[in-house]
Each structure stands twice: as C-alpha cells, then as structure tokens.
Design brief:
Layout (H helix, E strand, L loop, with lengths): L1 E4 L2 E4 L24 H16 L8 H13 L5 H13 L10 H22 L14
Antiparallel strand pairs: 1-2
Length: 136
Amino acid sequence: MSVKCNDKSVTSRADILIPDTMIPDIRNTDILDTSIEFRLAKYLFKKIRENDPKARRPDLKKWANDIRLMIKNDKRVPDEIEAMIGWCQEDEFWRCNILSPKKLRKKYTTLLLQMKREKKRWGGLKGVPDNWADRG
C-alpha cells in the first residue's frame, strides 16, 4: 500500500521510519517544561553554556522537538541521549560541533562509533556507564 505525502509516495510498512514531516510538531503545543525532551534540551544547553558562558539561549521548544524526533523516529533511548550529550560536550572536537539537538541527531551514529573507539583505546569513557557504548 502506498500513501501520498508531500507529492511523494511512501510505502506503508512497519519497518519504514515515519518521515519527520509526518510527525506532529510540538513547537506549537504546550510542551511541559518537565517532559524528558525539554529536560534533555535544557541539559544540552547547560553543557554548551559550561563551554561558552556567552552562548545565546535557544528556542528550547524547538530543541525539545528535535529530541522528540530522536526518541520517536530514531529509536534513541533518553538515558543514552543524556550520556551522549555529556560525552560529546566533554570531547575537545565534538563540543565545538554539537551545538544543537539537530546536529546531535545528524551525527549520532558517528559519535557512537567514536565513543566505542575511544572506550577501546582508553578502557573507559568519562561520564558514561561502562557498558553503554557496547550497545547499539
């Protein structure tokens, strides 16, 4: 079965991810400040601020929406997202490059592979549970 979506045909199968454009956008709703998505957005901003005290405050609802897409569409686990945020903001290279959840989402697999490589090289990861990078 095919469905028309934005002039594109999308096959309706359980193993196909839903396009971002078909997932409701929470920026226009009353997202709770206590939601996991909002909490992770605030955590990323806090870590960015630790590296750059003059960092401009983002639209946290938009950031929460990007994190929601990571959880719903990409099947990322909130605890693992939190660990990834902590690790990438400690890494000298990645803290300069991951400045939003959108970029975190785009580079997540690359970050995961680099974490695994670093764990193998150094025998552990700062701020990340021992078995976390072995998953996924």
